[in-house]
Amino acid sequence: ADLYTNVEGAGATARYAAGALALGDARETEIATHVAAAYCGDLAVTAAEEAVQLHGGIGMTWEHPAHLYLKRAKADQIAYGLPGLHRDRLGALVDI
User: Fold this and answer.
1) Per-10-residue mean pLDDT for the chain, 96 residues long?
2) Residue 9's pLDDT is what?
3) According to the model, what pLDDT value does residue 95 have?
4) Phi, psi of 49, rounded to the nearest 5 degrees
5) For 94, phi and psi rounded to 5 degrees?
6) pLDDT of residue 67
7) For labelling alongside 37, which of 15, 64, 82, 88 has CA 20 to 30 A away?
8) In the chain, what are the domains?
9) pLDDT at position 46, please?
10) Distance of CA 5 to the CA centre of its chain
11) Whole-prediction pTM value?
12) Could you tell me the sign of the dihedral formed by the alpha carbons of 18, 24, 29, 32, in that order?
């Protein structure tokens, strides 16, 4: 239940960032993008870890793709910037 509510929250942050981009407000887009990247980056890895845990031993074998989702989530998190980086940039944007 906790993971489901967190995933719903991640969807909301991503939709807000997309909406801010569509409106064309550069400052709001940058803030919303950093919030979404920080929140969704951590959550994608957590959700994939939970999927592997839920599936037990088969989650880390080639018979099930759960381990591939975990690897992809971690690679995307590193490629798009770790959450700490986005939080630092967000703090600078909102003067914290």
Assistant:
1) 93 95 92 92 91 80 83 90 88 85
2) 94
3) 81
4) -60, -40
5) -105, 15
6) 86
7) 64
8) 2-93 (1.20.140.10)
9) 92
10) 14
11) 0.77
12) negative
Is the sign of the CA dihedral 55, 60, 64, 65 positive or negative?
positive
Of 4, 28, 2, 3, which is closest to residue 16 (Cα–Cα)? 28
Biggest distance spanned by C-alpha atoms of the chain: 49
CB of 91 within 8 A of CB of 55? no
Please state the φ and ψ torsions of residue 61, each to the nearest 5 degrees: -110, 170
- Is 51:4 a contact under the CB 8 Å cutoff? no
- Nearest-angstrom CA–CA distance, 48 and 54: 10
Q: Please tell me the distance from the alpha carbon of residue 3 to that of residue 38, in angstroms, as a whole number.
A: 16
